[in-house]
Amino acid sequence: LFDQYVRRWMPEINSQVVGLKYFNVYGPREQHKGSMASVAFHPNTQVKKGENPKLFEGCDGFPNGGQMRDFIYVDDVCKVNLWFWQNPQHSGIFNCGTGRAEPFQNVAEAVIKHHQKGAVEYIPFPDHLKGRYQSFTQADMTKLRGVGYDAEFKTVAEGVADYMAWLNRA
């Protein structure tokens, strides 16, 4: 809806208007999200309780833990927002992801690596999600790169390592 509104009025607007479509953001200060917190948050909680991190079994052609998302660390999201603030000549609707789809397995393994314990446990894929679950997301970064945003984005391994250090600080 916002996309359509902005596209309609963009030719007449004299100030910067930026809409960012956030992909799978994870990082500090998401505890309030409860069950909607990131796939990095939940395995950390499970390992801290002495459990193994849990991921869905394979479904829709994806192997166990192989569902893929474009995970973007919140620090990278902040950098994109600040870049637009510092570059007011650019307006439009942009994807805010990394352009890389990485499997949930990579996230769980990064959590295990931080804690140096645990093994991924696969749980049955819920029937009510079959055929309705978004098993793959990957941002098309062409437009963002096209306006000059050239910073690198953290990989899941890098971002989750930073996040685990923050979540588990003494």
UniProtKB/TrEMBL annotation:
| SUPFAM superfamilies referenced in this protein's UniProt entry, alphabetically | NAD(P)-binding Rossmann-fold domains
Q: Which residues form the NAD-dependent epimerase/dehydratase domain?
A: 2-97
UniProtKB keywords? Carbohydrate metabolism, NADP
Q: Which residues form a coiled coil?
A: none
Gene3D superfamilies, per database record: UDP-galactose 4-epimerase, domain 1
UniProt xrefs under InterPro entries: Epimerase_deHydtase, NAD(P)-bd_dom_sf
Identification of the protein by name: Putative ADP-L-glycero-D-manno-heptose
This protein's encoding gene: gmhD
